[in-house]
Structure formats: C-alpha cells, structure tokens
Amino acid sequence: MGFVKEFKEFATKGNVMDLAVGVIIGAAFGKIVDSVVNDLIMPVVGIIFKADFSNLYVALSDKITPGLTLAEAKKLGPVFAWGNFVTVVLNFIILAFVIFMLIKGMNRLKRKEEAAPAAPPAPTTSEKLLTEIRDALRK
C-alpha cells in the first residue's frame, strides 16, 4: 500500500475528523472563556479587591519603579507577574467546570439510553425448528 493511500485512509476516518472538529471548537471556546474571565469576571474581582489583576507583579530588578504597568515593567527587567497567573488559573477553573458539566450531561443521556430495555432478539430458524419439535414431542 502506498504512503499517500495509507495517509488518505487515516485522514478520512471518522475519528480523525471528529478530533479535528473538537480541537477547532475547543480553541474557539477557549477564547470565549478568556473573554469572560478578562472582560467580565476580573474587573468585578478587581473592584472588590481594589486592584487590577492584570498589572499585579513583583519587580525582580532595581530598574523597575513602582506604578508601572506590567508591559512597561517587563521592558525594563524581569517581573514575577502573579496577577496574570491568577487570571489564567480562573480561566482553567471555568473551562474545566464547563467541560465537566458537558461530560456529566452526556453521561446522563447515555445512562438513559442504556437503561431503556432492549427488545429480545427474534428466535433464529434453528430455534423455531427446535421449538416445533419440542412441542410436537410433548403431544
């Protein structure tokens, strides 16, 4: 089998296509979660704690003066940007929770589907014949 033909079979399998769609949707969903955290949640948290988390850092260089934004401070020297870390952790927690809820819902649907009693299979020709023979012998 040629390399191109083998690759074509691999790439056109259903699982590979499903995975590709999942990755694309996941990337788009990640951007939505980033926006929710950065644009909706972090400003409220910042108001409550009276701080802008995106600019919270610890300067690791004497060249950095207090009051600079994180971007300006990074240009002057190394910084320990713990505010960004808090934001990323919140992104992860929200994304993990949403994925958990999706999987939980899918599992619930699967359980309902499995719980439905399946109709017993119809007897085969051999079983029908044996049943007729048994019934004839009883008479």
Number of helices: 5
The count of DSSP E runs of length 2 or more, i.e. the number of strands, is 2
The whole-number mean of residue pLDDT values reads 81
- N/C terminus separation: 63 Å
Plain-language structure description:
Strands 1-2 form a two-stranded antiparallel ribbon. The termini are far apart. Helix 2 crosses helix 4 (82-115). 72% of the residues lie in helices and 3% in strands. With 139 residues, it is mostly helical. It is elongated.
Short descriptors:
139 residues, mainly alpha, two-stranded antiparallel sheet, 5 helices, 2 strands, 3% strand, elongated
Question: SSE layout and pairings?
Answer:
Layout: H1 3-11, H2 14-49, E1 58-59, H3 70-76, E2 79-80, H4 82-115, H5 125-138
Antiparallel strand pairs: 1-2
Give the gist of this structure:
The protein is mainly α. The protein is built from five helices and two strands. It has a two-stranded antiparallel ribbon with strand order 1-2.
